Amino acid sequence: MVEVQVLVLDGRGHLLGHLAAIVAKQVLLGRKVVVVCCEGINISGNFYRNKLKCLAFLRKRMNTNPSRGAYHLRAPSRIFWRTMRGMLPHKTKPGQAALDRLRVFDGIPPPYDKKKRMVVPAALKVVRLKPARKFAYLGLELPGSSGPPTSVSGVAGTTGVYHHT
């Protein structure tokens, strides 16, 4: 039996939509893709605009019983997974199979910390955005930080979008 090559991508410094579109095409073609460090994925636009969009998304809920619907995934890896799901025909068998070929993680878990991580040049923020453009991070752990933060405070901690310094 032939072993399928797993493509391990490092999400740091990539734009959310561009990376998701490229990964969606790869999983539809049959490749297994693993995206690590989803907390370092960037969203174009300033922090306040992205925060308002996230808060508007969090307000959507079922009127009669909110526990029954409109589940809001807050982890950066799950936000990326949901963006990917929107780019796949996930209600069909091929789309479900493609979504099963995708794995997303915050940080770098043990099986993938020893593997070579790739980048997608067409989705990098430094290539796609002008230097003066503002952007926000998808997660708390910013590139260059020493580790995960100990606590989260304020409204920004609940939105899934975080300001860069």
Automatic annotation (TrEMBL):
<dbReference type="InterPro" id="IPR005755">
    <property type="entry name" value="Ribosomal_uL13_euk/arc"/>
</dbReference>
<dbReference type="InterPro" id="IPR036899">
    <property type="entry name" value="Ribosomal_uL13_sf"/>
</dbReference>
<keyword id="KW-0164">Citrullination</keyword>
<dbReference type="GO" id="GO:0017148">
    <property type="term" value="P:negative regulation of translation"/>
</dbReference>
<keyword id="KW-0689">Ribosomal protein</keyword>
<dbReference type="GO" id="GO:0003735">
    <property type="term" value="F:structural constituent of ribosome"/>
</dbReference>
<dbReference type="InterPro" id="IPR023563">
    <property type="entry name" value="Ribosomal_uL13_CS"/>
</dbReference>
<dbReference type="GO" id="GO:0005840">
    <property type="term" value="C:ribosome"/>
</dbReference>
<protein>
    <recommendedName>
        <fullName>Large ribosomal subunit protein uL13</fullName>
    </recommendedName>
</protein>
<comment type="similarity">
    <text>Belongs to the universal ribosomal protein uL13 family.</text>
</comment>
<dbReference type="InterPro" id="IPR005823">
    <property type="entry name" value="Ribosomal_uL13_bac-type"/>
</dbReference>
<comment type="function">
    <text>Associated with ribosomes but is not required for canonical ribosome function and has extra-ribosomal functions. Component of the GAIT (gamma interferon-activated inhibitor of translation) complex which mediates interferon-gamma-induced transcript-selective translation inhibition in inflammation processes. Upon interferon-gamma activation and subsequent phosphorylation dissociates from the ribosome and assembles into the GAIT complex which binds to stem loop-containing GAIT elements in the 3'-UTR of diverse inflammatory mRNAs (such as ceruplasmin) and suppresses their translation.</text>
</comment>
<dbReference type="InterPro" id="IPR005822">
    <property type="entry name" value="Ribosomal_uL13"/>
</dbReference>
<keyword id="KW-0687">Ribonucleoprotein</keyword>
<dbReference type="Pfam" id="PF00572">
    <property type="entry name" value="Ribosomal_L13"/>
</dbReference>
<dbReference type="GO" id="GO:0006412">
    <property type="term" value="P:translation"/>
</dbReference>
<keyword id="KW-0810">Translation regulation</keyword>
<comment type="subunit">
    <text>Component of the 60S ribosome. Component of the GAIT complex. Interacts with EIF4G1.</text>
</comment>
<dbReference type="GO" id="GO:0003729">
    <property type="term" value="F:mRNA binding"/>
</dbReference>
<dbReference type="GO" id="GO:0022625">
    <property type="term" value="C:cytosolic large ribosomal subunit"/>
</dbReference>
